[in-house]
Amino acid sequence: MAVTADRITREFSPNSPSTPNHREMVIDSTRKAEYWLAKQLDKAGITLNGSNPWDPQIHNRQVFHRVLSEGSIGIGESYMDGWWDCEQVDELMTRAMTAQLDETLTGRWTFIKHWLAARLMNRQSIKRAFQVGEQHYDAGNDLYTAMLDPTMAYSCGYWQEANSLHEAQQAKLNLVCQKLQLKQDDSVLEIGCGWGSFAELAATRYGAKITGLTISKEQKRLADERCNHLPVDILLQDYRHHDGLYDKLVSIGMFEHVGQKNYDTYMRSAHRLMKDEGIFVLHTIGKDKSDLGTDPWIDKYIFRNGAIPSLRQISAACEPYFVVEDVHNFGQDYDRTLMAWHDNFERAWPMLSTAYDNRFYRMWSYYLKCCAGSFRSRSLQLYQVVLRKRLTPMDRYKSPR
């Protein structure tokens, strides 16, 4: 039966008929927690055990305690444990975020803990930098090969004229090359090279010479294989340890791992590594407002030590070093990209299930759909920012679309 706040109020109001367990039921903590959650979800048009595809179906009523006490982590972990299901988790999250329920359901202590950690600690220090590579990007090349398109690009595709994931990823990579004004024999440093998608295309199609940095052993192994016999050098190295001077710089989907305490170091490093007449294209997820910390469940299970910047934070970090020549937001395209990845993941699961358990399946599906909902609600954006060195006279820059 669908559970709404109104129904619970009527059922347990002081004027309802007395029953032997009436008083105990009124003070029952599980029912109180259920009432509170139902009341919050009502604001977003979501009904516990309702008939809509975005309505959560509850299998274990202890989930209400977990949500109240643990917030985001309790919601995600209880889904991983099979305590609740939802046909369209992506739409559930879209509606919840549009109604700003994510701020209510975060879990106060969990949020404060992550906020304090972001403010007091450098969670993206050199010592901790490789943790996300070991946890997330080294999860298994079989997983990513099955989920991604043939380019192996693990970032937002550009769907303006694309009809498939592969077309969208090729369009994104070509768009970056065009914004870089890439030409034959340009030396390019890619900060966070993934599995070599940009390096392979830029070297093959544009004749550029690429140096790629990654903190993932599995990414390096596959990128080396993909870029064999091309003018591409893949290094297992933190950007803060790299030296050199390049015509162009690019960073696609890596700035989310830098962290607020390192934004200045990152921009100073990019400025040091690029020639005066160079161009830097920064492709990053962005938040719709500035704050510290990240979603606790995402931090624990998906992107360790991550931090999504706002446009204001990006601009402030650039200010001492670069002129912002162009900002291009196509965040809606990430919703479509994530759902395409989820479709690939679902199709590949019979093969992947021999190497990954059902809890991993639920975790990964939840991750992809939650992120899709975040972009669909416009809580998250996707920025491509074109940067050139300040106080360096150059011709007018015209950014392609």
UniProtKB/TrEMBL annotation:
Pfam families recorded: CMAS (PF02353)
Catalytic residues as annotated in Swiss-Prot or TrEMBL: 371
Entry keywords, A to Z: Lipid metabolism, Methyltransferase, S-adenosyl-L-methionine, Transferase
Region annotated Disordered, chain positions: 1-23
Keyword Nucleotide-binding: no
UniProt EC number: 2.1.1.79
GO MF assignments: cyclopropane-fatty-acyl-phospholipid synthase activity
CDD domains: AdoMet_MTases (cd02440)
Class of enzymatic activity (EC top level): transferase
InterPro entries: CFA/CMAS (IPR050723), CMAS (IPR003333), SAM-dependent_MTases_sf (IPR029063)
An annotated GO BP: lipid biosynthetic process
Similarity annotation: Belongs to the CFA/CMAS family.
Protein name (record): Cyclopropane fatty acyl phospholipid synthase
